[in-house]
Design goal:
Layout (H helix, E strand, L loop, with lengths): L18 H11 L7 H6 L8 H11 L8 E2 L12 E2 L6 H4 L2 E4 L14 H12 L9 E5 L21 E5 L13 E5 L5 H6 L13 E3 L29 H14 L7 E7 L5 E7 L2 E3 L2 E3 L1
Parallel strand pairs: 1-2, 3-4, 4-5, 5-6
Antiparallel strand pairs: 6-7, 8-9, 10-11
């Protein structure tokens, strides 16, 4: 029978697990239900129960997406997966865009010991930097390191991650998370576990392997302005042949990863000057003109 801490108080409230129930569910998955650690690690919707194992998976996958992953301290499996280990640079803000906090899991208790205490202190220093200053985003896996699994940041001296990725079922400490981005990964919880622990989990959209918890952060539309002043747009920088210039811009759009760069707004006017605009697909372009 699930403990009161593990049960949602109503159908509309998501379940948040106690430390004990989180451990029991983990044992059930890798015991009677037959999941192995390798299975949980290898399949995207089946996140490893240990954030450290998640760090190993992340370090092995990020190079495929063109990112350099620097693994520090106790990320088990990192060396086996060929990740680069070593001391972190002095200024994290200058070296990294994202920091993934995967030091501890839900089984952790007590006070962090070296070298983790120093790493946590550095994350605290980063999390208090103002939004106007450049700093890496901090993403915590399952439990922000240093937080109590059930009570959260008890003394108020821990770091505040920008994103929390809960694994399988959010833990009780996730209720204390106030950051802008909270996601859940674990689209594999079998019906026996759902029934036994009376789990109330959000539906996953489509074939997505993760789901956002809570509302997306509000956006100040006025802050999305860009400065488009560039010498590339000045008349003396434009190529003499307009078709060559168009092809150059089109190639740059493709290289930048713009979705459907061949979808364009085409505007024409008839003899009376009546304007008509429509969305068309570009099929080809050469010196003779465009094919729509």
């Amino acid at each position: 029978m699930a403990s009161p801490a593990a049960s949602a108080s109503s159908d509309s409230e998501m379940t948040h697990l106690s430390q004990r129930d989180a451990a029991e569910i983990d044992q059930q998955l890798m015991g009677p239900l037959g999941f192995s650690v390798d299975q949980l690690m290898a399949s995207p919707p089946r996140p490893p129960s240990s954030p450290a194992l998640s760090a190993g998976v992340i370090s092995s996958l990020t190079p495929w997406f063109g990112a350099l992953c620097h693994v520090r301290a106790g990320a088990r499996g990192a060396e086996r997966r060929g990740s680069r280990c070593g001391d972190l640079p002095g200024n994290l803000s200058e070296e990294f865009d994202i920091i993934i906090d995967a030091m501890f899991g839900f089984s952790f208790h007590g006070t962090p010991r070296p070298p983790f205490d120093d790493l946590i202190h550095r994350l605290v220093s980063l999390s208090v930097i103002g939004n106007s200053a450049k700093r890496p985003a901090i993403v915590s896996i399952d439990i922000p390191s240093g937080w109590h699994v059930e009570e959260g940041d008890v003394n108020g001296e821990g770091f505040k991650p920008d994103m929390l990725v809960s694994l399988t079922v959010p833990k009780l400490c996730a209720r204390k998370f106030t950051g802008p981005n909270h996601f859940l990964g674990g689209r594999f919880v079998p019906p026996p576990i759902l029934r036994k622990y009376r789990l109330h989990l959000p539906p996953y959209p489509g074939t997505s392997m993760c789901v956002r918890i809570g509302k997306a952060p509000s956006v100040d539309i006025s802050s999305l302005r860009e400065n488009y002043i560039s010498p590339e747009l000045l008349e003396n920088q434009v190529m003499s042949d307009p078709f060559d210039q168009f092809i150059r811009w089109f190639d740059e759009a493709v290289t930048a990863g713009l979705r459907e760069p061949n979808a364009m707004a085409l505007t024409t006017a008839n003899k009376e000057g009546k304007v008509s605009s429509r969305m068309v697909l570009l099929k080809g372009v050469d010196k003779q003109g465009f094919v729509w």
